[in-house]
Fold this sequence. Notes:
Structural class: alpha/beta
Bound molecules: nicotinamide-adenine-dinucleotide, 2'deoxy-thymidine-5'-diphospho-alpha-D-glucose
CATH class of the domain at 3-183 and 221-243: Alpha Beta
Shape: globular
Low-confidence stretches: none
CATH architecture of the domain at 3-183 and 221-243: 3-Layer(aba) Sandwich
Helix content: 40-55%
CATH topology of the domain at 3-183 and 221-243: Rossmann fold
Amino acid sequence: MQNLMVTGGAGFIGSNFVRYMLQKYAGYRIVVYDKLTYAGNLDNLKDVQRDFGARYAFVHGDVCDAAAVRAAIHQHQVDSVVNFAAATHVDRSLMEPDEFIRTDVFGTHVLLEAAKAFGLERYHQVSTDEVYGEVLEGRSRETDSLHTRSPYSASKAGGDMLCIAYYTSFDVPVTITRGSNNIGPYQYPEKVVPLFVTNAIDDQPLPLYGDGSQMRDYQYVVDHCEGIDVVLHQGEIGEIYNLGIGAETRNIDMTHAILDILGKPRSLIQPVKDRPGHDRRYALDVSKIRALGWEPNHSFEEAIEDTVRWYVENEWWWRPIKSGVHYQQYYQQQYQGREV
Length: 340
Ligand code: NAD
Ligand code: DAU
């Protein structure tokens, strides 16, 4: 495994993964294949282009375009694919599910067909803890059945099931990781942490859904990338690995942590109408990936501290996004008149 194609590599986690892998492995070449949707941003890879230009290439393309996918694999002599490409925001999946089903299900199928046709060494699917559905008690294990509740999680589950099908039916060498909520540099400010941090910097309200008691396992993005690397090199083909800290934080506590780090008042919290079908809690059993030797380098407290600092120091990255027409329209549609 030396020539990786990272689909969705211009997004949040994908770009962190590309940087991590090129820094760690001097012998690797990476081609990022990305459609550059609103969430894809070449600014995320600016330093990668500068520091690793000789081992990095970018191809603008859609994972649903089978001919373009195959051309990129052929041209860059790709031996393995790591698939991050997806429509990823739960709230948008409630507004416009089509794109989720198209990219997250059909796009995965296109990539699996290409992996089969080229006899790739590995196809890795980056999945999510959301496929288990909300878990009010206990922890989800990789063998648990899936109880998806949003168009996003249902689409991701469809992608996972196709991966297992291609492994079982065609021996495509598949691995899957199911990660919990990532936070860190380059996350599009529609997701709660970058949204709240950047709003708080500007003394704008933080729209907290419902009573704020929902829980997420917020993990630092580079730890997640390291976990994917561990599975790529030590994971067993055909296996699924949960990937997270394994400890949950209530949204209200995450919000207080952000405000405290920034020295901003709690009066900035604006309770708003809850997300329809809002999953109350995700909780992963992470013993399987820990048995491979992986463990997170950041606690929640360290992850949120580093994340807040990055947004404070990198206004050049998020201000143009937040002042753009697309973002402004989305924000209005999503939050206007939602106060309770
Ligand atoms: P993101 O929204 O920041 O980035 C998605 C990337 O995929 C963008 O660069 C976008 O341009 C690209 N893309 C979208 N549709 C495409 C298409 N049809 N063809 C090619 N490229 C396309 O997402 P993220 O938060 O970095 O998530 C990456 C992956 O990790 C997703 O598969 C997501 O389901 C999974 N995941 C995310 C989290 C999280 O907390 N963010 C947690 C667990 C798993
Ligand atoms: O669990 C992994 C998943 O985490 C990934 O698969 C998804 O791609 C990613 O978007 C994320 O999904 P969530 O729905 O958990 O993330 P989000 O940042 O949208 O919301 C986190 C929590 O914060 C959730 O309980 C809803 C709440 N929230 C969110 C927003 C956007 C608010 O209270 N206010 C908000 O404005």
